[in-house]
Amino acid sequence: xxxxxxxxxxxxxxxxxxxxxxxxxxxxxxxxxxxxxxxxxxxxxxxxxxxxxxxxxxxxxxxxxxxxxxxxxxxxxxxxxxxxxxxxxxxxxxxxxxxxxxxxxxxxxxxxxxxxxxxxxxxxxxxxxxxxxxxxxxxxxxxxxxxxxxxxxxxxxxxxxxxxxxxxxxxxxxxxxxxxxxxxxxxxxxxxxxxxxxxxxxxxxxxxxxxxxxxxxxxxxxxxxxxxxxxxx
Length: 233
Hints:
Blueprint: E1 7-11, H1 23-31, E2 36-43, E3 49-51, H2 72-75, H3 95-100, E4 107-112, H4 118-128, E5 133-137, H5 140-149, E6 155-159, H6 165-170, E7 175-179, H7 185-193, E8 197-201, H8 206-215, E9 219-222, H9 225-232
Parallel strand pairs: 1-2, 1-9, 2-4, 4-5, 5-6, 6-7, 7-8, 8-9
Antiparallel strand pairs: 2-3
């Protein structure tokens, strides 16, 4: 069988040039030729999907406090921290704004960070209608809720512990995204035998990428998409 050519996914957009998970980071990635980006979401106090990695504002913005305890209007006024040595006026984006900025052929992998209730799941699914997206989570419970609400939604289970590999292979999740240090030839063979679509995160160097590309993967999530796209070509 021919090896799969992996899809290269810009992790949190081009965040070496723009704040991570910012609208500018995603727009820049898509404009540079990256078809797929990855983002993280939490939900605000009023149940709106917010694009941000941490459950607090402290690390990535000029604000502080829990995302889930802050209103969506207040969150949109919070400024994101610039990349090292840079400046920015970027604010925390809503998921609907990131989806609205997607070019027609672009794709977005959305990591659901917390466990969220069904009403928020349904609200997110409404936003995704007509978009080229995949949802991923470390929480199988979250994936189950999305699947129950929409059996056609594309889902991936994130795993980061060695003892989860066997469980992942035996599970009914079609796509498995692993921490890249977990994937060797034997693990790849086990998951491939179980007919899984295999992805890895976060692969940033040529030394990390080359043996993984040689295995034949579907997805590689990276902070260095320019390098990896060159290696795949």
